[in-house]
Design a protein that fits this description.
Elements: E1 2-5, E2 14-17, H1 25-33, E3 45-48, H2 58-67, E4 73-78, H3 90-99, E5 105-110, H4 118-123, E6 128-132, H5 140-149, E7 153-158, E8 176-180, H6 196-205, E9 210-214, H7 222-228, E10 232-235, H8 237-240, H9 245-261
Parallel strand pairs: 3-10, 4-5, 5-6, 6-7, 7-8, 8-9, 9-10
Antiparallel strand pairs: 1-2
Helix pairs in contact: 6-7, 7-9
Organism: Aedes aegypti
GO biological process, one term: carbohydrate metabolic process
Keywords: Carbohydrate metabolism, Cobalt, Isomerase, Manganese, Metal-binding, Zinc
Length: 262
């Protein structure tokens, strides 16, 4: 007997072969009920990056993204040292928080000294503090503790050139792992599909972990991210510059939700 799994999702329908003589009605139903993957406890979340938004109208553009269905805002903070670009810091984030009271703010700290900005970002109203482990390998544990003590969730990020095994020892301290799918520092780069094995490895080994991807993600690349196991999606240019932001956000979310369910 063949059972088809899949309903109007962008993934190939899976056929599960069951030998009926070996299964009574109860055991058959039991197997079917457990077919949804271990990802079923996760939720799909879309977090637009405001890096390519009009920063002179940051409040208006951010509110429009939320009104169009964004689950959170991804705020890219760059120091000009860890990455060559320079964006904004906690004063801008605090001003945005004063305008937008309830949205979930994640700051992606592309900075050389993430420990320096923990308290200022907490004071600015940040919900999740995601920092790169590369420049602070000897102090990741201490930084995670300080982020938690400041009342924020912990996100750990790795660049494309960093092996995923590097972050393994710190996963118990984190609420989320970010796999960069472009080199950090600039928006609008081409998606690096060869980062998907990192996502897949994390999902296989940590089925309940929130896994985020960031860089070059849009309608043409979302299925690869979803299939690999990412459930938190950062998209900048694809959403910011879309004629219909809500439609793009719905498409991205639908792809991830299908992967979670099937």
């Amino acid at each position: 007997m063949l059972i088809n799994i899949g309903h109007q999702c962008p993934f190939q329908t899976t056929q599960i072969a069951l030998s009926l003589p070996l299964l009574d009605h109860f055991s058959l139903q039991s197997k079917i009920s457990t077919l949804p993957l271990i990802m079923s406890s996760l939720s799909a979340k879309i977090g637009p990056s405001i890096l390519n938004a009009d920063l002179s109208q940051l409040h208006e553009e951010s509110q429009r993204l939320l009104d169009n269905g964004a689950d959170y805002l991804h705020l890219d903070v760059m120091d000009g040292t860890f990455v060559p670009n320079l964006t904004f810091g906690h004063p801008v984030v605090k001003c945005l928080r004063n305008k937008i009271k309830d949205a979930f703010f994640e700051t992606h700290m592309m900075v050389q000294a993430p420990q320096q900005w923990i308290e200022p970002m907490a004071d600015a109203g940040v919900n999740q503090y995601t920092f790169h482990i590369e420049p602070v390998m000897d102090s990741v544990v201490d930084i995670c503790r300080k982020v938690q003590e400041a009342g924020m969730k912990v996100g750990l990020a790795i660049k494309p050139g960093t092996p995923v095994e590097t972050v393994k020892e710190f996963i118990p301290l984190a609420d989320m792992i970010l796999i960069m799918t472009v080199e950090p520092g600039f928006g609008g780069q081409k998606f690096m599909n060869d980062m998907m094995p990192k996502v897949h490895w994390l999902r296989e080994n940590y089925p309940n972990l929130d896994i985020e991807v960031d860089g070059g993600v849009g309608p043409g690349t979302i299925d690869a991210c979803a299939k690999a196991g990412a459930n938190m999606i950062v998209a900048g240019t694809a959403i910011i510059r879309a004629d219909d932001q809500a439609a793009v956000i719905r498409q991205l979310k639908h792809s991830v939700e299908c992967a979670i369910k099937h």
